[in-house]
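Late entry, written up from scratch paper. The run itself happened at the end of the previous shift, but nothing got recorded in the book at the time, so transcribing now.
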Amino acid sequence: AITPRTRALATISPNNPTGAVYSRDTLAAINALCARHGLYHISDEAYEYFLYDQVPHLSPASLPHSAAHTISLFSLSKAYAMASWRVGYMVLPAHLAEAMHKIQDTNLICAPAITQHAAVAAIKAGRRYCEPYIHQLAQTRQQLITLLANHTLRTVAPQGAFYFLIYDDKKSVSDMLQLTHHLITHHHVAALPGITFGVEGPCCFRISYGALDTASALEGVSRLIAGIRSL
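Output as recorded:
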């Protein structure tokens, strides 16, 4: 709920952990809501290139009359495999620039020079650099959808990013962290429990296939399923 203390609303699209991609109508409605209430709309778009089945990505800052209250966040960690290099960029209203410079100077000053040069080269290469990898991810995604369906695990096929949020409605687990430890120790597979993302209730895990070839992803999910069903 919006209260007197609310200053901003944040959206993540494509989404982590669900892989959802919010529609133009949804993002436009959120952006307009922010405008009406004097809030900033913070749009996390780290997975902007990771899209499947011709689902489009919309940056809310491209909407009419959005520039004055929309902050767009982008990361090079995902699309250009620069994870841990700690480099990204944002597009923000001009009136926030001075305050943002103060925050940056206080927290980190700047990314290392070599990282900045690599970032410039990545941005110049653009989406064409990522497309072959995204094509491979799409194939992995489709095979994982089939595997999960064959084992009657509930999920929603991700429209973007490289995650599945999966549920085993046949299992009732009182301690998801203990189950996670069991899967690592006895089945040699790691996944994040849903409680990490605030998902309560049935047996739920988020799986990531972004850094795996198809065979490894299928093997990992097969181990996960076997581990859950063994209890």
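The domain at 8-125 is CATH 3.40.640.10 (Aspartate Aminotransferase; domain 2).
(Scratch paper discarded after transcription.)
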